[in-house]
Specification:
Layout (H helix, E strand, L loop, with lengths): L20 E5 L5 H9 L2 E7 L2 H11 L3 E4 L2 H4 L14 E4 L19 E2 L8 E2 L3 H12 L3 E7 L8 H14 L1 E9 L10 E9 H4 L3 E3 L5 E3 L29 H8 L6 E3 L5 E7 L16 E3 L9 H7 L13 H7 L3 H14 L34
Parallel strand pairs: 1-2, 1-4, 2-3, 4-7, 13-14
Antiparallel strand pairs: 5-6, 7-9, 8-9, 10-11, 12-13
Length: 381
Amino acid sequence: MREYPYTWTLKNAQFSKDRGKVFSCFSCGGGSSMGYKLSGFDVIGCNEIDPKMMDTYIRNHHPKFSFLESIETFKTRQDLPDELFDLDILDGSPPCSSFSMAGNREKDWGKEKKFREGQAEQVLDNLFFDFIDLAEKLRPKVVIAENVTGLLLGAAFEYVRKIYNAFDKAGYTCQHWKLDASDMGVPQQRQRVFFVCLRKDLADQFMEQVDLFSVKPMIDMEFTGRKIPFSEIEEHGATEGDGKLYPSVHEMWKRTIVGGQMIRNSGAQAISHYKLDPTKVLYTIIGQDGAGAYHHELPRTLTKSEYCKAGTFPMDYDFMENKTKYMVGMSVPPVMMARVADRVWDYWLSQIEKTPDVPGLSNPTTTIGYSRNEQIDYVKE
């Protein structure tokens, strides 16, 4: 298994770009893109609606193609480059606040809303299906979509059925897994759902019976990596964090035990705030204000270095005007994405010798069928 240290830099990472082409939708600052690059893929471009996110993506990734527009507009373009019809992986993380257990869930379904400042209003729960429409148009070999685990709970699971049906109609066999980043070499407990889909005309050679009732393309998505406690990523000697500690939060911090959720004056718990336990893995980093992890000995938030390590972001990543916490909290940890990409390569893409001619695929390509064992070189800081 390839090694992916959580402390690394863009400056010193060696991206081989020999495993195929990837295009990323809802790209944000490029967490998933960095994961594909670590795994050896060539990320040729992105689609993003937020100007600030796009500026940050371009600053750090220098994509060949970038489309600053909604996916509803992007999917209808008639002037897309030929390379986008020759993808190995189409990647996307459709905005998911409508399904998050921390949001309004059912109350927001079907409503137009802005995901954050600077964006146009969209019906967020429709964006996943716009993404599938794009997949049907581009016909990549594999489609990978990431979302919150709330999608699997309660009434929201009906959307999962619709997602499966939409992928089926688009010509893909679909599977999904709930994965935890802390099992994959990431110093953060971050559970996410990954939909991993293989184009049907390529799937026959990988089909195996997975239970009494279904046959699916075989791919192993079980990860059992070592849990990395906060003590291993702690920046010793830091007296201030990367965010302001308000007096009310300071008071909560003083009366909260190590590892506990913050306690308000009323005695109620501040669910999204906790004093971390250095012997345990960090909880999920939440990008929005009003949530946070606080040091166990000093009244401070996490530092930029600690956020980068917890999210496996490169230490020299240029966040520009964006808060480190926000960007890390909104992104797929690069190492998490690299692990998923490795499995897709090992089980599927490395075994596909030639892409057959299919309608809508303008440039059939040959994919080299071998598996590499070499590791990427990093410099620890």
